[in-house]
Amino acid sequence: MLLYSPEQVLALAPDAAAAAASRAMASPAKWASVGSDDAAAWGEAIGSGSSPYQTAVDLKDLAYKCSCPSRKLPCKHALGLLFRYAKGELEGIARPPWVAEWLEQRAARATKQSEKATAGPPDIEAAQKRVEKRWSNILAGLDQCESFLVDAASQGLLAVQSTRSWDQMAARMVDAQAPGVATLLRRVGARIGVGEGWATTVSGQIGSLALLNEAARRVDELDEGLRSDVATALGIPTRKEDVSGEAVSDTWDVIGQIVQVEDRLSTCRTWLKGRSTGRWGMHLTFSVAGQPFDSRPIAGSALECDARYAPSSWPLRVYLEPGEMVPFRPNAGRRFSSCLDSAADAWAHNPWLEQVPVHISKAVLGRDEKSWYAIDEGGEALPLGGREPWGLLSMTGNVPCEMFGEWNGRDMRLLAAWGNWGYFGL
Q1: Residue 239: inside a domain, yes or no?
Q2: Of 238, 241, 237, 216, nearest in space to 227 by CA
Q3: Residue-wise DSSP of 144-155
Q4: Which among 55, 179, 282, 356 could bridge 316 via Cys, Cβ 3.0 to 4.6 Å?
Q5: Is the dihedral of CA 374, 253, 292, 228 positive or negative?
Q6: Longest Cα pair distance anywhere in the chain, in angstroms?
Q7: Are residues 230 and 306 in the same domain?
């Protein structure tokens, strides 16, 4: 049985250029050989070099291997191969040795990680000392960060406009083991003096930093969920093995997905919505220096599985247990006013959320001389950020459809839309 449709494969493309190139790579003339079995698809893609590129896809975990030099994840060869698989063009044959070796290596790494996670009781005393040492480093760094922000506010932001100054302070926060604060500082430095309304945006970002500094100093006074939110905002990761809450069983529709690259780290953020519970879930997976993502749900599909929520005052991040893929049939969305009420509630609980999910029903696109908008059936509109939605407009003919995106308080980044014509990932 085929696991993916062409529309779902297209949703995996990291950008519009990769999507177009992958369609061209789906031509049989582009491949010297192809094949598949229940676990993987593989092929040799004809490129500009003397030897074909060896391309393979783990169909269960959506992991990729390709010998091409592209840094995009997945590359056009992996997507082209998946297009051919989705159209039923790959013959079931025995795996070649290079594919078998790759799958065996993946299985060995998974076994090693599992053994490490279950190996003996941890040294609690040593772990506690490491935590205390890190918090000591973070608080010392935050003292310097606060002094820097006070100076910036007293001198005026344009007087401290040099991106280098903000980057230097960010580097100090990396040394202090607070990479989340470093990321926020870099964003502020890059935004000062840039674009319309930059002062409002930067003021809000600095306010968020100041609030985080204060919360970190008083973290022992906070409840468990908010303590976890502060740790996450500082850049202290939540490990899957530390998530011990009750599992939420549901059919999770994979509503939308986005891959973002910052420095050498790629982050894939996937939004899911439970059909029975109506709960949102955000699944994260990471890639460093162009390496493939370990696994990620595929947008436009659905999973019957258990999800465990990471501790938070407004739980969103989930860790998914193995499950079964089923057809994508999400419930209808809501009007903007209801979505924005939920967003306000989310930020009231966790002010360091960077974006919240927005799912609108019966929405159309609109445009004025400045911006694009998504407009619900009541005529309420939200401004759109990111790429212009010409592809969606041509796909739907602007007939009302379900739209999904991320709202950051200023504009909505449109990530997906669907209707009786299918699913379209932006």
Answers
A1: no
A2: 216
A3: HHHHHHHHHHHH
A4: 282
A5: positive
A6: 70
A7: no
Q: Where are the alpha helices (DSSP H) in 156-277?
A: 163-175, 179-191, 198-217, 224-234
Please name which of 20, 12, 86 lies closest in space to residue 391, comparing C-alpha atoms.
Answer: 20
187 and 271 together in one domain: no
User: Is the domain of 113 the same as that of 129?
Assistant: no
Tokens of 340: 């924005």
For 345-371, the DSSP string reads HHHHH-TT---EEEEEEEEEEEE-SS-
Residue 226 dihedral angles phi and psi, to the nearest 5° = -70, -35
Can you say whether the dihedral through the CA atoms of 186, 286, 384, 332 is positive or negative?
Answer: negative
CB neighbours of residue 246 within 10 Å: 8
Report the distance separating Cα 62 and Cα 45, nearest Å.
19
Angstrom distance (rounded) from CA 171 to CA 271 = 31
Q: What is the pLDDT along the chain (426 residues), one digit of tens a residue?
A: 456 777 778 777 877 788 888 888 999 999 999 999 988 999 999 987 788 999 999 888 778 889 998 877 788 999 999 999 988 899 888 899 999 999 998 888 878 776 665 555 556 677 678 878 988 999 999 999 999 888 888 877 766 566 678 888 999 999 999 999 999 999 888 888 887 788 888 888 889 999 999 999 999 999 999 999 999 999 988 777 777 777 899 999 999 999 887 767 788 899 999 999 999 999 998 877 666 676 778 888 899 999 999 999 999 999 998 888 888 999 999 999 999 999 999 999 999 999 999 999 999 999 998 899 999 999 999 999 888 898 889 888 899 999 999 999 989 999 999 998 888 888
User: What is the model's pTM?
Assistant: 0.77
Residues 258 and 297 in one domain: yes
Q: 265: Cβ–Cβ under 8 A, 6 or more apart, which residues?
A: 286, 287, 288
What domain range includes position 190? 124-234
Contacting residues for 56 by C-beta, under 8 A, at least 6 apart: 40, 41, 42, 43, 64, 65, 66, 98, 99, 102, 103
Q: 3-state DSSP: the chain helix, strand, coil percent, rounded to 5?
A: 40, 25, 35
| End-of-domain residue from the set 281, 303, 326 | 326
Residues 111 and 23 in one domain: yes
Apex 125 CA angle, 121 and 128, nearest 5: 110
